Amino acid sequence: MLHIDDFIQNLFFLANDDDPEVRKNICRAIVMLLEVRMDRLVPHMNIIIDYMLQRTQDADEGVSLEACEFWLSLADEPVCKVSPFLLLKCFILFILHFDLCRRHLNPT
After folding, report:
1. Residue 38: which of 6, 69, 8, 68 has the closest Cα?
2. Smallest Cα–Cα separation from 52: which of 90, 106, 7?
């Protein structure tokens, strides 16, 4: 984990790649980092939240579903349990985008 900051910067560099597989893998990587090194993501959380909001609305279903995983993982983090404001913000964002995720899973 010596190069985690470089890894995070490279994720940001690739964030708007045209390839949906790249965007999907960026979402997965952020979720994994959230679960193991949240402390390294905290300084970038505003950027990450904005990015995940965009990806939740991505035209590619796989990307938007991976972005939904971020909100679920974030809500499980201790910082959300400690900070009611952050938990409320996560909850509101999740509710706003839940319907989009549900429509992707059940297009009927």
Report:
1. 8
2. 90
Which of the residue ranges 46-50, 89-93, 104-108 has the most confident prediction, judged by mean pLDDT? 46-50
35: Cα within 13 Å, side-chain hemisphere: 10
Domain count, the chain: 1
DSSP three-state, residue 26:
helix
Mean pLDDT, the chain, whole residue set? 82
Q: pLDDT tens across 77-86, in order? A: 776 665 666 6
Give CA 90 to chain center in angstroms: 11
Q: Residue 48: exposed, middle, or buried by beta-carbon count in 10 A (0-12, 13-18, 19+)? A: buried
- The residue assigned the tokens 């992707």 is 104
Specify the pTM: 0.72
* Burial (Cβ within 10 Å: 0-12, 13-18, ≥19) of residue 13: exposed
Structure token digits, residue 54: 């965009």
Which residues span the domain enclosing 13?
4-105
